[in-house]
Amino acid sequence: MAHFSSEDEAQLQSMLRQLLQSVKEKITGAPSLECAEEILLHLEETDENFHNYEFVKYLRQYIYNTLGAMIEEEMEKCTSDQNQGEGPGYDTLVQHVTKVTQESKEYKEMMHSLKNVMMVVVESLINKFEEDQTRNKEIQKKTVKEKCSNFCIDNCSDSDSSFNQSYKFSQGKLQLILEQLDPGQPKEVRLEAMQTLCSAPPSDVLNCENWTTLCEKLSVSLADPDPAFNDRILKFYAQTFTLSPLHMTKEIYTSLARHLELYFLSSENHIPTLLTGVDVTHPNVIRLLKKVRLLNEYQKEVPSFWIRHPEKYMEEIVESTLSLLSIKHDQSLLVSQKILDPIYFLALLDVKAVWFKKWMHACYSRTVVLRLLEKKYKSLITASVQQCVQYFESCEIMRSDENLTRPKHCGNKQKTFYSGQELQYIYFVHSLCLLGRLLIYTHGRKLFPVKLKNRKDSVSLTDLLVLFTRLIYYSPSCPKTALTAPAEDYSPASLVTEILRILCDQKECATECLYKTPVIDAFLEPIHNLMKGIEASPNCSETALIYIADVLARIASVEEGLFLLLYGENMNSSKDENSTGAHLIAQFSKKLLDEDISVFSGSEMLPVVKGAFISVCRQMYSTCEGLEVLIPYSLHDSIAKAWKKTSLLSERIPTPVEGSDSISSVSQESQNIMAWEENLLDDLLNFAATPRGLLLLQKTGAINDCVSFMFNRYAKKHQVSRHKKFGYGVMVTQVASTAAGAVALRNSGFINALITELWAILECGRDDVRVTQPRATPVDPIDRSCQKSFLALINLLSYPAVYELIGNQDIPNKSEYSLREVPTCIIDIIDRLIIVNSEAKIRSLFNYEQSHIFGLRLLSVLCCDLDTLLLLESQYQVSTILLNAQEENILDITGEQRDVIIDGLSVERNHVLVRLNLVGGPSERILPARALQKGDDPYPWPMFSSCPLPNCYVSEITKRIDSKQDNDFGKLLSPSKISDKQAEWIENCRVQFCQTMKTKPSVISEAVLAELLEKFVLNLTENPFECYFPTVEYKATDANVKNESLSSVQQLGIKMTIRYGKFLYLLKDSAENDLTLVLKHSERFLKQQQATIKSSLRCLQGRYPGHDWFVSSLFLIMLGDKEKTLKFLQKFSRLLTSAFLWLPRLHISKYLPIDISESAIHPIYYCGAHYIEMLLKTEVPLVFSAFHMSGFTPSQICQQWITQCFWNYLDWIEICHYIATCIFLGPDYQIYICISIFKHLQQDILQHTQTQDLQVFLKEESLHGFRVSDYFEYMENLEQNYRPLLLQDMRSIRVQSM
């Protein structure tokens, strides 16, 4: 650069100019100078041609020539040092060389030289630019001068030229144009004046003082019959609309609207009538339509920017529009002689009233529109309603008239003539769309009712909705392909359905408009007619029925709409309960499935009609209350029969032969059959949304196919249903709560996929993603990436599922595991993540600590179900394995000091071990924390590697000393009182129990309770009406059962019960033998009442798969008295309550229908848990919604609570109160207690729903603070509301013939 010549300067200027020209658009588009600089600085990142610019090439070569040798020398030096282990690493080599270069003397000299040269080059460029600008201005001035002198000669204009940018419209020239626009001037002069006006910048024209006069002159000139002159004016208007601000375009718009208003009001203008129709090729009509189109185009554009301007401008535009559209000609004329109003022409151009939709979208404009409609222009709404009413009446009167059908469009052929009937139809469509948009908004609905001409009564909102609904099936039929046709559909049925869909999606709107008995009756009218065997209506096609079903499905998907369909508006009305919408829809759907409706026989659309109405039923039977209403119709059987029939058809479809003409037809037929088959499977699957529905699904024998179908959709991430907001979580949880459901999930591949996905997250990571930075080290025990899989496993592993999936199976315990060996089942997860008891297992895990903690957390949740705990302990001795692991975690022993290494695993193991070995409610055991604490002692909880546990984990419970027996209870238990009127004594006993529970529940001790229960059940069973099950003679003695064996689960359960009983000071040392005998007698006693069932399910292979927690609880209540316990059980087994408190009572019982016994679903689930979900939705709706959002079900957790008699969840005294309440007051109180628990936990449940760990909370946490006595009054209210329904259903579980 030292020898920088003029040639070099010129060359650099050329290069720099090329670069700037290339990035001109980017720089000029920058909002500020700083942004432009940023664009240039980051040009290499944003411009793909950056390295092809000559200036860039020049700079690169210059840098290489100046610094190349130095850079290479430094790199060689660094490479040499690196080989010797002294230099910087490879990652920092570039940074090091760059730093050395930038600090060098050569670099600084180069930058100084380059800066000086570029300053010279840039300065020269700027000077040349200024010279060019001066020259251009002189040329422009000269051009303007010449142009002004030839003002009326040259008509050429280029709005983008510099001429127009500097052109100023003077007052004199505007005055000249005003004079030339005078109607008395020659045609050529007026045309030239308009051309000149169109050529000038609109802003210059509008800013002139004479603008208002010009606007008026143009408005008058619009009436000129000359089409060319009219076109010039409209062109000027269009330019003004496009380029000018709102306060200017507003004047143009209002003047155009006013002109049209005067045009329609003038009797001199020849406006078409309905009789003559509209010929769009007629010159007058063309001119009129151009003006209306310009108006309409502006109407659709202006809402996008009028919010930026004062409201008065918008109000003027709105008012001028409504004023124009409200024009009505003489109404005394016959309809055929009626002169067309402005709205007919607007409807012709904007059939679906898009302009009104846009005006109503924003609150800013909607407020003004609705205010003006209410105060001044309600006639516009009245006219729209009138048009809809007239069209409907014409449909009724002229049903068979083919001319009534909607306008037909002939492909791409342009339509040039519209008859009066077509115009009426177009206006009707416009009115329909306008009213549909109006109904969405609260103040729009307040415009009703409206008073119509020649009608005595006003048209209310409900009347209008009934009218809309009836239009679906009274208007002329649209083609059967209308549902799939790509062209826009203008049929009334389609338009009305679209409006109703929008109304359904908005709760307040739907409540005011649709959830009314007359509207629902209007929907059901054609169905009612078809059920009677008469024609639904002359124009009610299959397509119309599909539209009706679609809207009904949307109504049924919302709580208020569902209630209306199920019970009507007044649930307690004297109206026949079978006449509500739900019953009619179910009957109709059943007839469709059974093909018992002759009207549609052979119709191609019949499967679609069936699917549409089953979809309505599905919205109902997928809820507990809906299923209760629809159960009598056995829809599950009808759907299953249809599915089996369709499945057989799909197997018979011939394989298409290549080259055959029938390939397309066979392919289409097979697609239709497969789609119908999948639809029916989906309908069956939705029965699994409720506990009782799952039982019905299992009865059909299609559960495996349904679960496979669900897994396929789940794997493809398909939506459950268009009306469902959440995924398959609830359904999977519901299915997994039963043994057969768990087997179906395993067979479908769902469990395999879930575990594979979990393993990929835990151990593999995402290898296909380029790593730009290391993954964050997890700090939570369950990393967020694993949380979803963790919760899915918890949802899946209820005890019925656990027993089917791992029962009587050993874990692999291999000597070696390949790193590529991925678990595929629950046994593998237990083996690899929970029971990590060998070096081979540890070495097989990439993330040993994180993965093992995951397994321990999973074990902690699983063991909250005591049956699962006993199963894992009996099969795998998990407690011993964890104790051994803790032993291995102890540091070297120095004397008597044994220090355990405190880490994430040892802390988690310590927590799990306490859970495994201690039983007790919230105040009876103390669980150690899972996190370290701040301070000198981060983990104050003692670790242990052998049993018994340290005393600090056991709460101190003082031995209960029975206080003086309550006087009232003492009177009840006196022999004289019992011998008196038996029924009266039973009732007094119940009353006294309720009063005591409300006032002083603590006086009900084990001794008092045992005696009271014994006497109560004895007296109750002496009344035949109170006995639900027959008497069973049992004569076995201790000697008969002594040699019988109990399952390993039962044996461990006995030890757990004895430990708990001794802790509570209820049992003596000899109690274990007595409890063993009680359980053996109980098992033998129940075996006498079992049926013989052949099933592949493990739980039905023989004895009850879990421990008998009710008998264990009763044994504790009876203070370990074997004889009292057995005598009580034999009496108690005759009562209905025993079916719901004592779960083994109905295991494979002959008293249950054989299909229910084979399903392995206990009444506690399909009856008790079903009603818990049903009542929860009504009583504590927020909790019900929280469960739904979490993908968890109340039925699963309640089944766990009830099965183990709330052990570990309630303190012993509350367990006693629970059992006593159900025995004294009836089995339905079991449901009320569960509802009370959810009510008690409401805030906690909502909180844990937000933190996405609701399942973990409900399973792991005890029910802190819950006391049965606190909710007694609430439960009594529940009894008053629900007892008749619940007891009736509970009494129906037995085989009716017995």
UniProtKB/TrEMBL annotation:
Keyword field contains Cytoplasm: yes
GO BP terms, alphabetized: determination of left/right symmetry; embryonic digit morphogenesis; heart development; kidney development; lens development in camera-type eye; non-motile cilium assembly; protein localization to cilium; retinal pigment epithelium development
Domain BROMI N-terminal: 12-138
Subcellular compartments: Cell projection, Cilium; Cytoplasm
Domain BROMI middle region: 173-844
Keyword field: Cell projection, Cilium, Cytoplasm, Developmental protein
Listed Pfam families: BROMI, BROMI_C, BROMI_N
Residue stretches making up the BROMI C-terminal Rab TBC-like domain: 862-1293
Parts of the chain that traverse the membrane: none
Record's keyword annotation contains Cytoplasm: yes
Major localization class: other
GO annotation, cellular component aspect: cilium; cytoplasm
PANTHER family in UniProt: PROTEIN BROAD-MINDED (PTHR13465:SF3), UPF0183 PROTEIN (PTHR13465)
Assembly with partners or alone: Interacts with CDK20, which promotes CDK20 stability and function. Interacts with FAM149B1; may play a role in cilium assembly.
Role description: Required for high-level Shh responses in the developing neural tube. Together with CDK20, controls the structure of the primary cilium by coordinating assembly of the ciliary membrane and axoneme, allowing GLI2 to be properly activated in response to Shh signaling.
Protein name: Protein broad-minded
Originating species: Monodelphis domestica (Gray short-tailed opossum)
Gene name for this UniProt entry: TBC1D32
